[in-house]
Amino acid sequence: MLSEKMLKALNEQLNRELYSAYLYFAMAAYFDDLNLEGFASWMKAQAEEEIGHALRFYNYIYDRNGRVELTEIPQPPKEWESPTEAFEAAYEHEKFISKCINELAALAEEEKDYSTRAFLEWFINEQVEEEASVKKILDKLKFAKDSPQIVFMLDRELAARTPKLPSLLLQGE
Length: 173
Known about the structure:
The protein is an all-alpha fold and 173 residues long. It is built from 6 helices and no strands. It has helices at residues 4-33, 37-63, 83-110, 114-144, 148-158, 165-170.
């Protein structure tokens, strides 16, 4: 059974993960408006991944006899000055999520909740990957200095990462 303190913290993280999805969908819409379909595709796939993270928290809370509490999701920004600025925001957000996951792990240890600490290990490792993948794209954008030619080439590269939900929805047709 989860302590009240741990349950509250897990629910807060679940809601942060939902906000992360919301943020990445907003970034996808921004990139779609710029006709940068590869960037948009990458962000949509990222948003789906964040929904998966939220579902992991949701299921874990219920597996531990807790109650999921969903809160209002704040509206994310919808405009950025450039693709570089959007990825800088994404990178800062991933660093924030990493900090939150680490704080959750510390709380689990403080509460002597070793099951939750073990559950969080996956997220700790996942955040290393999350930060690295966003930073890699950000570094390329900074190097390019928003050069239209390099942004176009990067857009084609990012198109390789596609969201899975649209194809799952089409399977029934």
